[in-house]
Every structure is written in structure tokens, then in C-alpha cells.
Amino acid sequence: MFRWLKPELPQAEGAFSKSTPLDALRYVVLDTEMTSLDRRSNRLLSIGAIAMDGSRIKVGEQFYRVVNPGVPVPAESVVIHRLRSQDVEGGEPCAKALQDLCRFIQDAVLVGHFVSLDLKLLRKEMDGTGHELNNLAVDTARVHQWILRHQRYSDDLPMQLEKLDLTALATHYGLEVHDAHHALDDAFLTARVWQVMMHKAQAQGIRNLGDLLRIAGAPRFPGRWFHS
């Protein structure tokens, strides 16, 4: 028979312990653009990231790379991210971009909106390059759901819990949205969303890294099927 192994949640390690306060953590908020959402064939097109010290966004510490995927960019995805085949032909080799990214995210907790999608793509691209992505990671969509569930109940809560796209979250927290589906712009917007969320989570008792991973930690390893 086949059974589903529950994804293993990350354990605190490296630069931070579980007791590290949220404000003492270094975060890197990241976003990627890809050729498609098909996990079997999607390829990386661009990476955007910005650093945070606690709740302070470090605008001067940004990372952005356009990557040459080595395959044509599907027309249907160009409508979303506006990166055409000719735009990425001069992009960096994927291995070089990933090497630079690993340096940038060193000793940081990663933050992203539906971050597991980004992590799966990056890990797939890293396969065979000699690089690994082992950072602890936090999903802002899951943080948002936790905050909603721990606020005063409202009749429209079920509907709010379903509105999880980045633009909807930014609007919910009173933030302006200027551009969408550009990796660096989306990383910066996610950082601003996380900035607001962090204060709300702290007010509701989420004090340290251990608390944060409990409510919104991205699985370190994807679930998998095995035969027994």
C-alpha cells in the first residue's frame, strides 16, 4: 500500500535558535518568476530578494537576477511576468545566479508568499549545481491565515481566508500596490506585508523563531510517496 509522509517541518538551526526574538532575526524576502506552474517542466526566469533586520526593510540590500532558462518562454506566461524570450537571452546562467543568491541569503530566514513554490523551483534548479537551499523559511500566506483566525470572529472570515493572493493581502493591510509579477517588486511588497504582519503576530503572542515556525514554517522537505 502507499502512504503519504507528512512534510517535515524545519527545525531551528544555524545562526538562530528557536528562542531568538522576531526582531533579532535577519530575513530575506524573496520572489521568483518562472516559465510556468508545471512543476515537471517549469524553469527559473528571475529572482528578486530584499533583506530585513527584524521589521526594518534594508532597501540598500537588494538582489535581482534575470536568468537565461535555455528554453523558449511560453507566450501565456509572458502576459503575467512580461519576460519574453529575447529579454532573458542575455540573462545570467542559472548556476551563477544561484551561487550569488546563496551568498545573499546566508544566515537568513527566508520569507515569501506561497514560498514553497519558490523553494521547490530553486531546489530543482540547484540539483546538480553543487548548491543547496537549507534556510528556514516562512510563508506569509500562512501567517495571514493564522492572524485572521486569532482575531475577533467576523461573518466574512471564511471568505477572507480564501483571499490569499499578494495583492489581496497588501490591500487588507492598507498597502499600495504599484506593480505585480516582477520578482523584485513583489519581494519588496511582500517585505512590506511581512513588516505589518510581524507586529500583528507579536501582539497575538508570536514572540520568537520557534513560535513563527510553528504557525507558518515552510516544510524543509516535500512530502513523498513510499511503498510499504
For this entry, give a set of tags.
six-stranded mixed beta sheet; alpha/beta; single chain; two-stranded antiparallel sheet; Nucleotidyltransferase, domain 5; 8 strands; 228 residues; 21% strand; disordered C terminus; globular
What number of structural domains do the residues give? 1
Q: Taking Cα atoms only, what radius of gyration do you get, to the nearest Å?
A: 18 Å
Strand content: 15-25%
Query: What's the overall average pLDDT, rounded?
Result: 84
> How are the strands ordered across the major sheet?
5-4-3-2-6-7
- Cα(first) to Cα(last) distance is 6 Å
How many separate helices?
9
Q: CATH superfamily assignment?
A: Ribonuclease H-like superfamily/Ribonuclease H
Helix coverage percent = 25-40%
Largest sheet: 6 strands, mixed
Shape category = globular
User: Do you know the CATH architecture?
Assistant: 2-Layer Sandwich
* Low-confidence parts: 1-12, 222-228
Q: Which CATH class?
A: Alpha Beta
Instruction: Give the oligomeric state of the chains in this entry, treating copies of one chain as homo and distinct chains as hetero.
Output: single chain
Describe the protein's architecture and organization.
Residues 1-12 and 222-228 have low confidence and may be disordered. The protein has one domain: 2-Layer Sandwich (Nucleotidyltransferase, domain 5). It has a 6-stranded mixed sheet. Strands 1-8 form a two-stranded antiparallel ribbon. The protein is of the alpha/beta class. The chain is globular and about 50 Å long. 38% of the residues lie in helices and 21% in strands. It has helices spanning 75-81, 85-88, 94-104, 115-126, 140-149, 157-162, 166-172, 183-203, 209-216, and strands spanning 2-4, 26-34, 44-53, 56-68, 92-93, 109-112, 137-139, 225-227. The termini are close together.
